[in-house]
Specification:
It contains 8 helices and 2 strands. The protein is mainly alpha-helical. A two-stranded antiparallel sheet has the order 1-2. Strand 1 and strand 2 form a beta hairpin. Keywords: Membrane, Transmembrane, Transmembrane helix.
Amino acid sequence: MRRAPLLLILAAVSAVAHVVGVLVAAPLWRGAEVLSLALLLAYAVAAGLPAPRWAVPVGFVPLIVDAVRTMPAEPGAGDFGWMMDASGDSAFDRTAGFDAALDGSWATLAAVAVLLVAFRGRGRRRHLIAAAVAAAPVVGYAAVRVTDIGTAVAASTRVVEVRTGTTLTRVGGPGYDQADVVPALVLAVLPPLALALAALALAVLLAGRGRRLAATGAALLAVLALPLLDAGIGAVPLPYSVDSTALFAWYAVTPTRMLPQPVPALTAVVELAAYLLLVAGLTGADRAAPAVPASVAE
């Protein structure tokens, strides 16, 4: 239909507006991301949903819900609030990193899972090999991060306050317990790793159906797992000095006064570009592709 390309263009424009707002930490319009996703879904419907027809709409439900949930607050809405002093709670929170990583990845992971179910089948051997090669750096990066931080934590020390009567003494105490930190780190990297592997599996299935543009979008979602992985690790309560191997954390690209959030903006670019390629590849560019995957692996 004639309006379908216009919807895709408007979705891209809304995505750009969202990215610019993230980059400068001042949303051009609070609902830009929600509008972009809604327009992408409208484009999919107008251009012709692929079989099974429920896959794309159902997959977009968690994405839109999460976009609404994380919509920036109204200007001035966060100027006042309560602060809680948790200094008396010395318990180590093992699930803090997992919660942060899951919070950032659950919607995309759910969407990928829906598409995996919808387009399940057998992948071709060359696509499986390519996916394995692409997964290796992601898994390797997670392993290096966990190992490096775990080793550094074992050698670290922290200041301990010792109170005796009216005297307060600060002395060097033992480092953070590896038995607490390492499981917390492993938990923190699980959601991003699950997203990366699921996205690459989806790319294999889509490539096997001849949907190369959509497969490229799915592969981009595996890249999205890298900053999510560092965000999860960053939420684990650790001494700052032990984390020196982060390549995709929010400070990986030095923020400036004019551009305070470069890494979150790049993350948003990758995410929205992946969705755009997925939808365009499933509904438009590869319409002549075979409807079923190859039955015999090459």
